[in-house]
């Protein structure tokens, strides 16, 4: 297990909870947090005991974006090119690691998510927001663009015109506005956020984990392939699932009219 900086990592009942932990900075992304974020998600994805991941923030904010103090001091990068590797490789960056994580990811949006934080929230599979949650597409107000997956994700979630409206105008959306647009799945009172996220996670974790992960992979690949190609890929994923003990348990529990007890094998 890795050591993490500026975030908390906990596993209970097949659910890994990753908490961005710089509440005094509204969980702005520091340079150490960038590496720890990727490490935590890889650890959760590799852990056979973990079936679902919840991502949230400590305190009253989810994530206020990249820490501009780090940015200005060269901690993450700066306008003169300092901090950038000559080899342009983002495969270990949080947005790519998040996108390629096979375990389902629930974002418990406890407060504002701005810039990079908004992109990270959009990169999760399911978003549950408290009434204090917000998505702030402030990139163009800071002289940048949605650099961490948002320019790819937002049009796919909303369609071109609505995504363009939000991104070009630099809009901030309340939890209720996000719900109306379909950017979040549910809105709760703040004190019910984590219990709701854990309830959803427990429901997912009770299902056959290999089947859930295969479903996510096929949905992700389907975004960029034809229907015919996806049908073929799904079939190839289905064949090994037929050989699993979980498939046998799923059929047996159905016949015996009892809850299934899946082992992820």
What does this structure look like?
Helices cover 45% and strands 15% of the residues. The chain has eleven helices and nine strands. The protein has helices at residues 31-46, 68-73, 94-100, 116-123, 150-158, 160-169, 175-181, 193-205, 209-222, 227-242, 245-256, and strands at 7-12, 15-20, 52-57, 105-109, 112-114, 126-130, 134-136, 172-174, 186-188. The strands form two sheets. The protein has a six-stranded mixed β-sheet, with helices on both faces. Strands 5-7-8 form a three-stranded mixed β-sheet. Helix 1 (31-46) links the parallel strand 2 (15-20) and strand 3 (52-57). The longest helix has 16 residues, at 31-46.
Question: Features of this protein?
Answer:
2-enoyl-CoA Hydratase, Chain A, domain 1; six-stranded mixed β-sheet; 45% helix; 9 strands; Lyase 2-enoyl-coa Hydratase, Chain  A, domain 2; alpha/beta; 11 helices; three-stranded mixed β-sheet; 265 residues
Topology:
Blueprint: E1 7-12, E2 15-20, H1 31-46, E3 52-57, H2 68-73, H3 94-100, E4 105-109, E5 112-114, H4 116-123, E6 126-130, E7 134-136, H5 150-158, H6 160-169, E8 172-174, H7 175-181, E9 186-188, H8 193-205, H9 209-222, H10 227-242, H11 245-256
Parallel strand pairs: 2-3, 3-4, 4-6, 5-7, 6-9
Antiparallel strand pairs: 1-2, 7-8
Radius of gyration: 19 Å
Which stretches are poorly predicted, pLDDT < 50 over at least 5 residues? Answer: 76-84
Largest sheet: 6 strands, mixed
Euclidean distance between termini CA atoms? 22 Å
Name of the top-level CATH class of the largest domain: Alpha Beta
CATH homologous superfamily caption of the largest domain: 2-enoyl-CoA Hydratase, Chain A, domain 1
Strand content: 15-25%
Number of helices: 11
In the CATH hierarchy, the architecture of the largest domain is: Alpha-Beta Complex
Beta strand count: 9
Name the overall outline: globular
Which structural category fits the helices and strands? alpha/beta
Write out the strand line-up for the largest beta sheet, numbering strands in chain order: 1-2-3-4-6-9
In the CATH scheme, what's the topology name of the largest domain? 2-enoyl-CoA Hydratase, Chain A, domain 1
Q: Work out the helicity level.
A: 40-55%
């Amino acid at each position: 297990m890795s050591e993490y900086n500026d975030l908390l990592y906990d596993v209970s009942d097949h659910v890994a909870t990753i908490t961005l932990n710089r509440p005094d900075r509204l969980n702005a992304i520091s340079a150490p947090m960038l590496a720890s974020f990727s490490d935590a998600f890889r650890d959760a994805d590799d852990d056979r005991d973990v079936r679902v991941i919840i991502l949230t923030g400590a305190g009253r904010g989810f994530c206020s974006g990249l820490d501009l103090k780090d940015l200005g001091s060269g901690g993450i990068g700066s306008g003169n090119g300092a901090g950038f590797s000559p080899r342009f490789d983002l495969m270990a960056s949080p947005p790519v690691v998040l996108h390629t994580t096979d375990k389902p990811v629930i974002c418990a949006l406890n407060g504002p998510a701005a810039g990079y934080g908004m992109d990270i929230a959009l990169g999760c599979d399911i978003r549950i927001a408290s009434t204090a949650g917000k998505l702030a597409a402030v990139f163009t107000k800071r002289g940048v663009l949605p650099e961490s997956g948002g320019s790819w994700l937002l049009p796919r979630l909303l369609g071109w015109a609505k995504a363009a409206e939000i991104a070009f105008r630099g809009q901030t959306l309340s939890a209720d506005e996000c719900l109306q647009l379909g950017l979040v799945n549910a809105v709760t009172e703040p004190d019910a956020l984590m219990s709701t996220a854990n309830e959803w996670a427990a429901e997912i974790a009770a299902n056959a984990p290999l089947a859930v992960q295969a479903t996510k992979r096929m949905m992700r690949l389907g975004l960029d392939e034809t229907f015919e190609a996806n049908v073929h890929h799904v079939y190839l994923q289905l064949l090994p699932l037929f050989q699993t003990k979980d498939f046998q348990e799923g059929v047996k529990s159905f016949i015996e009219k009892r809850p299934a007890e899946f082992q992820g094998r």
